[in-house]
Design brief:
Layout (H helix, E strand, L loop, with lengths): L31 H6 L7 E5 L4 E2 L4 H11 L4 E5 L18 E5 L5 H5 L25 H12 L5 E4 H5 L5 E3 L4 E3 L2 H5 L3 E3 L4 H12 L13 E5 L10 E4 L48 H13 L1 E4 L3 H6 L1 H13 L8 E6 L2 E5 L8 H8 L6 E2 L9 H6 L2 E3 L1 E2 L10 H5 L4 E2 L2 H14 L6 E2 L1 E3 L13 H6 L19 H11 L6 E2 L7 H4 L3 H10 L4 E7 L3 H7 L4 H17 L5 E8 L6 H13 L8 E2 L7 H8 L20 H11 L7 H10 L31 E2 L2 E2 L6 H5 L26
Parallel strand pairs: 1-3, 1-4, 4-5, 5-8, 10-11, 11-12, 15-19, 18-20, 21-22, 22-23
Antiparallel strand pairs: 2-14, 6-7, 8-9, 9-13, 12-13, 16-17, 24-25
Helix pairs in contact: 10-22, 14-16, 16-18, 18-20, 21-23
Amino acid sequence: MDSNQHTARPLFGHRKFWAHRFGTAPFLPMSRTEMESLGWDSCDVILVSGDAYIDHPSFGMALIGRLLESQGFRVGIICQPDWNSAVDFKKLGKPNLFYGVTAGNMDSMVNRYTADRKIRSDDAYTPNGEPNKRPDRTVTVYAQRCREAFPGTPVVVGSIEASLRRIAHYDYWSDKVRRSVLPDSKADLLVFGNAERAVVEIAHRLAGGEKINEIRDLRGTAFMVPPGWLPSDEWEAMDSTSVDTPGPLVRHADPYAMDEAGSRVQDPGSSKGEQPLRFSPKPSILDPQARREARRVQRAHTVIRLPSYEQVKDDPVLYAHASRTFHLESNPGNARAMVQAHGERDVWLNPPPIPLTTEELDRVYEMPYARRPHPAYGEAKIPAWEMIRFSVNIMRGCFGGCTFCSITEHEGRIIQSRSEDSVIREIEEMRDKTPGFTGVVSDLGGPTANMFHLKCKDEKIESACRRLSCVYPDICENMNTDHSQLISLYRRARAIKGVKRVNIGSGLRYDLAVRSPEYIKELVTHHVGGYLKIAPEHTEEGVLSKMMKPGIGSYDRFKQLFDRFSREAGKEQYLIPYFIAAHPGTTDEDMLNLALWLKKNNFRLDQVQTFIPTPMAMATTMYHTEKNPLRKVNRSSEHVGAVRNGRQRKLQKAFLRYHDPANWPLLREALKEMGRADLIGNGKKQLIPAWQPAGVPGNSCGQREKTGQIKKTAPTRRDAQQRPAGFAGKPGGLSKPGARAGKPGKR
């Protein structure tokens, strides 16, 4: 078992399964009637999803389903079944190979609950936005019902929910550390990250007669094993179950250190009574190439033992240590397997999957998708579909490494890009097949708008790198920031017959964009529809360092170029900045400084975000442990403040909406407590007025008050007319500068 090999079997290198003779389905069947119309007596694979079925590559069940269909398998789909019994899980019969279970495009808890743990009133992935059509912790519940429906049938779980819960993780909604989803769901295999290679391999190997519990060598998979299990005698375990502790008697090895051979420094005394671990001597090879190969082989047969679930559940420092170790083993080029004890069994994680090549990604996105919802939904509107129906995904992954974001934990840091020709073909297909297309492409993007074909200049450096971000604290000197391929794509896209306009809706990484002024000019001149969203997230350096985001100076440089090229194009255009409140490490003073920056720059934000600790994100580790996993973790390492108190979270959000009269009473109280009552008043340099407008919550008298006295004078002209840079009613909720606004708080 060499799960660390740097090459992978071609995604489309398998001989097709015999059922390919049935051809391509107009839609993957959701009922027995559809199966019969296709001539099927059974399904080889049944995908169970928490989302409505939209046959479009932006939706995971459609992408995986069409990929398996291209391999010759008959794939059925069960969407949003009634989970109170196993009846709905039987409606397509027993799958010949396996059930594939997914919560959908979002983690089910993020999908259903707000940052304040309140139930959302709608679900964008459900017809007509209807809420409560999926259970909490969907993967676990669906997998259990599949077991009940047909005991003994293999169950494979995947999607972002499974990816982000593949080891012990802090769960914000229950406010505790939960086990890996594997033992809770009783699944046979968990597929994490970009699942194409693993899912195709699983299907072909099961079809070839291999048992599900024999599949142990696939990258991007996790499974349960007996304690101390190793694949073969070639394998060695490396103990990482403890952290450095002060003391004169025993000098503990640094669990993150690497020796000159590229292997972890070992601590033979740290196993704490567990099974003896085997260690390899350092390769004594003079030839550099042979030495590198010896190191590669050694790494490929090494598993890192993380602190157990029982340890991290009760010890925040060990949780932070496990989180740091986990993230350091995220590069497919050098990641090792990891194992974590859960009671009497272990969760084993193979290294991340090898990224898809451009040619493979092209074929995945060019499957015969119907590009619309399944006809069973009739005229129902599915908000998520309405949002992306005229957009095209051009890449995957993100090397930004923002600590509050889970993209890198799921899709990885290596960018996987499509070819220009493939993207152009999809735009033409969208033009010809998608109902309602008017000539406007709403987005060409992905996790980030401008990482298309950006990668490390040297594959050897890339495969050896252990940085958590390629752009923080500065852009790596080995990172290619040439935007020429993206510029070429934009020009070709807007030249397509029938295309009137191509907008860019994905978030822009502005610190990369400033390296290519030509790209900014192209973007601003042709692809900004009046506003462009970017995400500085904060202005204060201390907070930004916990986010791994660039300083506000990068934003200022981008804004200068944006404004310059907008003027040259003769356009009035605005930036929509996004900010986060209550991120770990954020103080009330930080939020006050951000609010003052917003007022100075004449921004009034209508849509703001409060930090949500999503499973496995580095910022979530900070929130739970109050330790900084971006640095070496021990008992005395850096403390990071977490904003947990409901009032403080509300206050920090209120600072972002300093202009909303409903927030003024809370802000006045806080400013007085902070010793900044000087910011209360009607002056230019003051944040909020001392009076409260009539009819706005916070003033029981129903009249505006000023310094304790009730007066009936009208609001000042300055208060009424202070307007932000942006557009009223547009996403981001900014209003056009200089526009008159009637009374404060009105829109």
